[in-house]
């Protein structure tokens, strides 16, 4: 059985992390990279979590059921197995997606190992079977995505409306993107306005 990679927009969504140890820290770092609004609840925070104090809200207390009411998602990352199980149950009752760091069966979603380059994200999962293998595959993938892809994806993203308006046929639109992508890779992301207009013109004329 394999898990489906569902990509979620976390920008400004309230993500509540219960627990303030190293595992929580890893999850917090990931959530912050995707611009979530992170609230961390724990009676004790490790040094790493404390170092993020300007980017997160820290509530120095033990978990209570009412804490999760307004959450978009919850991460149960305490070292107390029974508490993690309770948090999972309470989230499920409220239909809040929950991640539980010590029990895959209690998660409604799991974290991937990922590579992020601007808007490009590659996520790897072993569906809970071996995080260390996911980590290894991620490190290999990191080596093969050129840095210029970040810039190129922005350029191609910015012209979508114009291309949509200029070409009626899907096949023509596809040709525009394909040729721009190939030229963009050749020029390591440095596509100019003239490059774009030339390709659009050439395809219009055909
Ligand atoms: C199910 C899941 C739930 C979830 O956390 O979402 C889960 C669960 C558990 N992890 C455990 C252990 C380790 N986890 C890591 C590392 C990562 N774990 C991550 C995700 C996930 N871990 C989800 C499945 C992901 C998948 O399918 O691949 C990553 C990918 C993402 C992240 O953490 O954000 C991140 C790599 C990030 C990166 O490098 O990019 C390492 C390696 C290390 O520490 O360096 C070890 C030690 C080696 C080992 O055990 O393999 C244990 C046993 C704890 C114990 O033994 O006490 C459990 C509990 C269990 O197995 O039930
Ligand atoms: N999913 C993953 O990737 C991994 C998961 N784990 C699991 O994660 C668990 C946590 O690991 P660490 O962060 O290293 O543990 P830790 O002991 O460093 O941190 C636990 C945190 O939980 C907090 N906590 C305890 N009771 C609480 C309560 N009632 N309310 C709120 N917070 C509470 C503590 O104050 C502390 O901040 C481990 O028990 C292990 O089973 C371990 C390795 C990887």
UniProtKB/TrEMBL annotation:
Signal peptide: none annotated. GO terms for biological process: siroheme biosynthetic process. GO terms for molecular function: ferrochelatase activity; precorrin-2 dehydrogenase activity. It catalyses: precorrin-2 + NAD(+) = sirohydrochlorin + NADH + 2 H(+). Its EC number is 1.3.1.76. Pathway: Porphyrin-containing compound metabolism; siroheme biosynthesis; sirohydrochlorin from precorrin-2: step 1/1. Keywords: NAD, Oxidoreductase, Porphyrin biosynthesis. InterPro entries: Met8-like, NAD(P)-bd_dom_sf, SirC_C, Sirohaem_synthase_N. NCBIfam families: cysG_Nterm (TIGR01470). This is precorrin-2 dehydrogenase.
